[in-house]
Design a protein that fits this description.
The chain is of the alpha+beta class and about 240 residues long. It contains 5 helices and 13 strands. It has a single domain, classed as 4-Layer Sandwich (Phosphatase 2c, domain 1), CATH 3.60.40. Helix 1 packs across helix 2 and helix 4 packs antiparallel against helix 5.
């Protein structure tokens, strides 16, 4: 029977004193929690399966609260996310929930998070993101970014500033999620990660690791590369692969 394999890891990195990343794989969530080694989960192919990472905004309060809120809400409604329109609606609902939570507690005012991931159905993959966490489609010798970075580039005066997030302002700001829909392929896998990986590990290294390794070993080697490059940020990685 066809199934989906998800290997994932979440780590605080070498520098930060707070872990503000969260992770979602189907009904399973991991919020502000370090995994000592990659975890591998298996899900039957059929019911929509969301897999996502969320990265609380640095410089804002309660990043771990906003990222956890988003992945938990996506986990709850995950089986209903059977097309791009529903994914878009779900992300907008998550955005409103972040603002609503902040409105009830002044200590949370301005909290926000990025989010990126895929929803795998019986025949489609919907990739999505808001912010600068990323989704890649990987194949033999190839890594292709599906997400679009909401981030000022190195050519701007303030590189690294996220230009779109769920929450992040004092008052509600609507979001415009990036979505890409493609047929499900047994030859492709999907790498989902926070910028703690991609800010330190070049795409060429990602490609080489994914060429040499699969599953939990690939996730471990990617994390190791980020740590060896200094590990300045939280690092959360998920690798999603259809199997038969």
């Amino acid at each position: 029977m066809p199934y989906i394999e998800v290997s994932a890891l979440s780590h605080i990195g070498n520098v930060r004193d707070r872990h503000e990343d969260s992770l979602l794989a189907g009904p399973w969530t991991l919020c502000a929690t370090v995994t000592e080694r990659p975890q591998t989960l298996v899900f039957p192919l059929g019911t929509p399966l969301p897999v996502a990472v969320a990265d609380g905004l640095g410089g804002h309060p309660a990043g771990e609260v906003s990222s956890a809120l988003v992945v938990r809400q996506l986990a709850e409604i995950g089986p209903l996310l059977d097309d791009g329109d529903r994914v878009r609606e779900a992300l907008s609902a998550c955005n409103r929930e972040v603002y609503a939570a902040a409105a009830h507690d002044p200590a949370l005012t301005g909290m926000g998070t990025t989010v990126a991931g895929v929803v795998v159905t019986a025949d489609l993959v919907v990739a999505f993101n808001v912010g600068d966490s990323r989704v890649y489609a990987t194949g033999p010798g190839d890594v292709r970014q599906l997400s679009i970075d909401d981030r000022l580039s190195a050519d701007d005066l303030a590189p690294g500033i996220v230009t779109q997030a769920l929450g992040g302002s004092d008052e509600l700001v609507a979001i415009h999620p990036h979505l890409t829909t493609s047929p499900l392929s047994a030859d492709a896998s999907y790498l989902i990660c926070t910028d703690g990986l991609t800010d330190t590990v070049p795409t060429g290294v990602l490609t080489e690791v994914l060429r040499q390794h699969e599953g939990g070993r690939a996730v471990f080697e990617l994390w190791k590369a980020a740590i060896e490059a200094g590990g300045p940020d939280n690092i959360t990685i998920a690798l999603v692969r259809p199997r038969t």
